Amino acid sequence: MGPGARAGRVPRRKTTMIEVIDFNLIDEAGPQSYRAEFAIEPKELDRDEVLALGPVSIQANAQAGDLPREYVADGSVSFTADLECSRCAEPFPFANASTFHVVFRPRPEASRENEEVEITAEEELDVEFYSERSIPLRDLALEQVQLSLPMKPLCDDNCLGLCPTCGANRTREKCACEESIVDERWGALKGFREELSKKKDV
Ligand SMILES: [Zn+2]
Ligand SMILES: [Zn+2]
């Protein structure tokens, strides 16, 4: 049997784009490595705090997993962004590099029970269920950016935010409101203590 005959029998996809993890190719040719860069628009993230996003780089290795029809991808994603501080609303630069480990398993056949059982085990938090046997690297990159963005971005851990009374940026300037706010709080606390002691006396 000549090599040509064998190649003719193996159904192969016509296009094997580097930007897609193709499970069939892994089955045929073994582990694959990927490297790509994507332009992602801040609006795709659905996060108002992201003002701008630089190119997102992804590097990944994918191979067959231990279970039948299971595949594993390991890699890293890095990007830079301009975020808006959730306390003072000032833009600040943000850079992130993170690694990921994702296990792809075929989506269970419409069985809720099954899915819940799969996800409860701690080590299986990174499991994603696939219905298509190809995963666009861009989706993986986008997902990692989402996961890497802080829930409440801060320009600095010590950012004092805006004065609720006059709107001044309290990290840069000291306004006169602060002391009166503190007085009010103490006043409220004092009143509360008096209430409490009255109740105890009853
Ligand atoms: Zn801030
Ligand atoms: Zn103020």
Describe the model.
With 202 residues, this protein is of the alpha+beta class. It has 2 domains: 10-148, no CATH class; 160-202. It is 30% helix and 30% strand. It has 5 helices and 8 strands, in the order H-E-H-E-E-E-E-E-H-E-E-H-H. Strands 2, 3, 4, 5, 6 and 7 form a 6-stranded mixed β-sheet that branches. The protein has a two-stranded antiparallel sheet with strand order 1-8. The structure holds zinc ion (2 copies).
Cα gyration radius (Å): 27 Å
Largest sheet: 6 strands, mixed
Poorly predicted segments: 1-8, 13-17
Helix content: 25-40%
> Which secondary-structure class do the elements indicate?
alpha+beta
Q: Helix tally?
A: 5
- Which small-molecule species are bound to the chains here? zinc ion
Run of helices and strands = HEHEEEEEHEEHH
- The number of strands is 8
- Approximate shape: elongated
Distance between the termini: 100 Å
**Count of distinct structural domains:** 2
Mean pLDDT: 83
**What amount of the residues lies in strands?**
25-35%
Write the layout of secondary structure elements.
Elements: H1 3-9, E1 20-22, H2 23-29, E2 32-38, E3 50-53, E4 56-64, E5 71-84, E6 91-106, H3 112-120, E7 127-130, E8 134-136, H4 137-148, H5 177-201
Parallel strand pairs: 6-7
Antiparallel strand pairs: 1-8, 2-4, 3-5, 4-5, 5-6
The protein binds zinc ion (ZN) (2 copies).
